[in-house]
Design goal:
The protein contains 3 helices and 5 strands; from the N terminus they run H-E-E-H-E-E-E-H. With about 150 residues, the protein is α+β, with helices and mostly antiparallel strands. The strands form 2 sheets. A 3-stranded antiparallel sheet has the order 1-5-3. Strands 2-4 form a two-stranded antiparallel sheet. The mean pLDDT is about 90. GO terms for molecular function: hydrolase activity. InterPro entries: Amidohydrolase, Bact_exopeptidase_dim_dom, Peptidase_M20_dimer.
Length: about 150
């Protein structure tokens, strides 16, 4: 390879948008090509690993808030339970991978947090959950994003 090689170490990983700040401040200069890499704890220190095609999946995040009508657990018929609705929604999201995505392409949907309620006997007024979508292809990630929004 002829030319100058510039190594950039992005702060804040992807979620913190560290790279966008570096680009805005001119860290890339007049680069003709950019190759992204990621730290992998499985590789020995000081080594670099590469292969043709994608090595890691692209990622995006999703967050959901389901609002119901909270109330006492002894009178569920007077409430709209967002925990039950969220449970159905999470199961439906999991089926996006197994029933709508090409099984020959790598796609992952992970629900990584679920928050709702603070008392054992009260149905909460809302539930929040969210997680990540990952795909080795741009089309796969866009399809997952579209379906989660639907």
């Amino acid at each position: 390879m002829k030319g100058t090689v510039r190594l950039l170490f992005q702060p804040a990983e992807e979620g913190g948008a560290g790279a966008s700040h570096m680009i805005k401040e001119g860290a890339l200069g007049d680069s003709e090509a950019i190759f992204g890499m990621h730290v992998d704890y499985q590789n020995p220190t000081g080594s670099i690993e590469s292969r043709a095609g994608p090595v890691l999946a692209a990622v995006c995040f999703f967050a959901v808030k389901i609002e119901g009508k909270g109330g006492h657990g002894a009178a569920p018929h007077l409430n709209v339970d967002p925990i039950v609705a969220s449970s159905f929604a999470i199961l439906a999201l999991q089926q996006l991978i197994s029933r709508e995505m090409d099984p020959l392409h790598s796609n992952v949907l992970s629900v990584t947090y679920f928050h709702g309620g603070t008392a054992m006997n009260i149905i909460p007024p809302f539930v929040e959950f969210g997680g990540t979508l990952r795909s080795l292809t741009t089309d796969g990630l866009q399809q997952l994003q579209r379906r989660v929004k639907e």
